[in-house]
């Protein structure tokens, strides 16, 4: 990875490492109201990822609807590359070397943040067309 693309990926991952400090309010409430067990924390993290994924899907649909055939083709190629990246991103938290906290708290927080960043990127593409 060189240049701007490498810097963007590095910035995204480094930004996600600061989590769950940047967690959304619903996640914080869920954690605060949970029984403190790992399954409860995992459920809160899973719900956060699901919320961000729903926002991403909505942004994707809006952008595709506003785009012509050539742009849609390019966007699809880009999204496939991002999906491949996303399948590998944050996995180090889920491998156990960061303990259960890494698996239960940091892994979903990292993923949710990267999804939110992608949503913001897609929304910015749409803003360019307005």
What is the mean predicted local confidence, pLDDT?
A: 85
The helix content, as a percent range, equals over 70%
From the spread of the alpha carbons, the general shape counts as elongated
Strand content: under 5%
Number of domain units: 1
Report Rg: 16 Å
Show the helix and strand layout.
Layout: H1 3-17, H2 25-33, H3 38-65, H4 69-88, H5 99-128
Helix pairs in contact: 1-5, 2-3, 3-5
Protein described:
This protein has 130 residues and is mostly helical. The protein has a single domain, classed as Substrate Binding Domain Of Dnak, Chain:A, Domain 2 (Up-down Bundle), CATH 1.20.1270. It contains five helices and no strands. It has helices at 3-17, 25-33, 38-65, 69-88, 99-128. It is elongated. It starts with a helix and ends with a helix. Mean pLDDT is 85; it is low at 4-19.
């Amino acid at each position: 990875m060189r240049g701007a693309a490498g810097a963007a990926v590095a910035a995204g991952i480094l930004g996600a490492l600061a989590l769950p400090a940047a967690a959304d309010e619903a996640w914080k409430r869920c954690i605060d109201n949970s029984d403190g067990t790992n399954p409860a924390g995992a459920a809160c993290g899973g719900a956060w990822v699901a919320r961000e994924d729903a926002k991403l899907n909505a942004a994707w649909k809006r952008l595709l609807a506003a785009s012509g055939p050539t742009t849609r083709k390019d966007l699809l190629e880009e999204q496939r590359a991002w999906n491949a990246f996303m399948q590998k991103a944050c996995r180090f938290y889920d491998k156990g070397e960061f303990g259960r906290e890494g698996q239960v708290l940091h892994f979903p927080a990292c993923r949710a943040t990267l999804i939110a960043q992608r949503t913001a990127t897609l929304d910015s593409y749409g803003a360019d067309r307005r």
